[in-house]
Amino acid sequence: MLKRLLITGAAGGLGKLARKRLAGMAESLRLSDIADMPPAGAAEEVVACDLGDGAAVDRLVEGCDGIVHLGGISVEDRFSPILNANIQGVYNLYEAARRNGSPRIFLASSNHAVGFHRQDEHLDAAARLEPDSLYGVSKCFAEHMARLYHHKYGQETAIVRIGSCFPEPADHRMLATWLSPDDFVSLIACVFRAPRLGCPVIYGASANDCTWWDNSSVSWLGWRPKDNSEVFRAKLDASVQLPGRDSIEAIYQGGKFAAAPIREDR
Ligand code: NAI
Ligand code: 15L
Description:
Shape: globular
Structural class: alpha/beta
Distance between the termini: 46 Å
Strand content: 15-25%
Largest sheet: 7 strands, parallel
Bound molecules: 1,4-dihydronicotinamide adenine dinucleotide, D-galactaro-1,5-lactone
Helix content: 25-40%
Radius of gyration: 18 Å
Order of helices and strands: EHEEHEHEHEEHEHEHHH
């Protein structure tokens, strides 16, 4: 069992889920975000921290033997907030980890690091990075930081290209990208249970019939997702309109992110 597991982004959607579901994985949880969080319960610490503040991130990581890194800008945005949270923030996290015993990291990357691959392509861990947004570019940066610190310092990171982790898929694209909350939690458990991790790329998707991604290179991890988005297909057919067949949204894996213009930084 871990002694102290740090969860960044603890006020966010996945952070709240992790707070609730990961309590049994560590003697205590250190929960951090820039946004307000409910007060600490038993075996919890709540620490406000801007990931862009290097000294604060150093203090945050000190004394932790595992990190679930969920904090940051989680959708397309202007460059400056992405720069602070996802680029400076990830640099700060890896430097803090280097100075504090290299705790294992579960890194929330995103399918948008490869979102400009077409929906008729099948991707494995060796797929070329093809970001579909500034957000996607920041996730490529994070993945490269993980690789760099692995090669230089042996830092272990699970680079998880999360698909769409929500209670249900919200549109037809998510039939391929959906990651159920239960499968998300079981993946984190596998990552911290593995005797040796290295720095693998893992696609965070459930056992969906419709799939674009191949996790065979990490079968050794023992993660066996259980849920399947197919159970939601009829509901989506009845309630959600399909995008035009020739639209960018329908062609590329990143969907709307691939179609969105770059936002000016003003
Ligand atoms: P979210 O937006 O709900 O949570 C992100 C949290 O990070 C927020 O609570 C926010 O306050 C915090 N944050 C933002 N800037 C910060 C800063 N400068 N310093 C400290 N904290 C900051 O996002 P969600 O859905 O919970 O996603 C968590 C992570 O997983 C994100 O890194 C996201 O990119 C990634 N991800 C999520 C997917 C999903 O389906 N939910 C899919 C792919 C990736
Ligand atoms: C992401 O990276 C986002 O964080 C999440 O909010 C969803 O938009 C998800 O990708 C997706 O592609 O559905």
